Amino acid sequence: MAISTLHKFSSQIHRLPSLSPFTQSLLVRSSATSSPTPSASSAKVADKIVKLFAIDLDGKKREVVGLSGQTLLKALANHHLIDPESHRLEEIDACSAECEVNIAEEWLEKLPPRSYDEEYILKRSSRARVLNRHSRLGCQVVLKPSLQGMVVAIPEPKPWDIP
């Protein structure tokens, strides 16, 4: 009975037009490995999905799927928009500002203010020591459902950071 429910649920997911193929595969995979009540645990995974958009270095708008509680850095690294090797730890003490992103104006108010440490690192990485109000560290932005649809831009590498 549990198997038939699982197959029924999987076929329903593929019919949802608003979900990307990646999101659908996440839901199918989570339901395949879940307990005897697949729809209950899959609903929990579906509730954690946060879909955002990133403007890459070529100016293309790309869909990024992350999970609530995950950092923006992790979501962008999973989609190969930020090099995961550049930021191995998601701790502010290990940050070199290579995970810097620019947040779209309408989303700035929905994020908590930058910490003193985050501001210090952003200023330190800026040649002019001027802080762009849209700049945030991806390792310090934690995804949550209210950030669904947020738009971020990946800035070009600073000339002094290019080998």
UniProtKB/TrEMBL annotation:
Protein name as catalogued: Ferredoxin
Q: Which GO terms describe its cellular component?
A: mitochondrion
Q: Note the InterPro entries from the entry.
A: 2Fe-2S_ferredoxin-like_sf, Adrenodoxin-like, Beta-grasp_dom_sf
Which GO molecular function annotations are given, in alphabetical order? Answer: 2 iron, 2 sulfur cluster binding; electron transfer activity; metal ion binding
Which keywords does this Swiss-Prot/TrEMBL entry list? Answer: 2Fe-2S, Iron, Iron-sulfur, Metal-binding
GO process terms (BP): P450-containing electron transport chain
Q: Which domain of life is it from?
A: Eukaryota
UniProt keyword annotation of DNA-binding present: no
